[in-house]
Amino acid sequence: MYKRLIILIILLISIFFISFDFNIEEQEIPKTIKVEVRGEVEREGIYELEKNSTINDLLLKLQLSNDANIDGISYQDKLYDGQLLVIPKKSEIKLISINSASLDELISLPGIGEKTAQKIIEYRDSQGCFLALEELLLIKGIGEAKYEKILPYISL
Q1: What proportions of the chain, in percent to the nearest 5, are helix, strand and coil?
Q2: Nearest to 60, CA basis, from 71, 75, 45, 74
Q3: What are phi and psi of 61, to 5 degrees?
Q4: What is the mean pLDDT of residues 35-48?
Q5: What is the pLDDT of residue 43?
Q6: What is the DSSP letter of 111?
Q7: Can you name the residues that pair with 36 across neighbouring β-strands?
Q8: Closest Cα partner for 57 from 33, 26, 40?
Q9: What angle do CA 108, 69, 96 make, to 5 degrees?
Q10: Which end of the chain is more exposed for a tag (fewer CB within 10 A), N or C?
């Protein structure tokens, strides 16, 4: 009786493994990323690039408008899937780098007081340089509205 039970169990296990697809090749890891580009480019939209591409790789695919300002962009930064990159317009306004600005420079931004400016500096000191302007939203006291208000005046 036990032999029949064991044979039945082995048979069921065999059928399970034969029917189960272990083909890992079908589960390919994506080799490309998609990045959305807006702002001062001839064609806004989604661009497909190789995984581990940099901003420089993307800029080589873009046709920038005459008003594009890429001074504050770091060419070696890696892009990630789903990222949004906004190419700003040149302006007469001198942009303030959130990675190197002093307390007084940060306070000169619209809606940024001394406490918020100090929080930006503390974040920068503890976390390192900002990798994206959107990181400012992680700082207490900077919400979407304030971020949108200072965005035209800041760079990395």
Answers
A1: 40, 20, 40
A2: 75
A3: -90, -20
A4: 92
A5: 93
A6: T
A7: 46, 84
A8: 33
A9: 15
A10: N
Task: Give the C-alpha separation, 104 to 56, whole Å.
Answer: 32
Task: Compute the average pLDDT of residues 18-45.
Answer: 78
Across all residues in the chain, what is the average pLDDT? 84
DSSP string of 43-78, one letter each residue: S-EEEEEETT-BHHHHHHH--B-TTB--TT--TTPB
- For residues 14 and 5, what is the distance between their CA atoms, to the nearest angstrom? 14
Core vs surface per residue 127-152: b (16+ CB within 10 A) or e? eeebeebebbeebeebeeebbeebee
pLDDT in tens, 22-34: 555 555 677 999 9
Angle at 135 between CA 132 and CA 137, to 5 degrees: 140
How far is Cα 114 from Cα 108, in angstroms, rounded to an integer?
Answer: 10
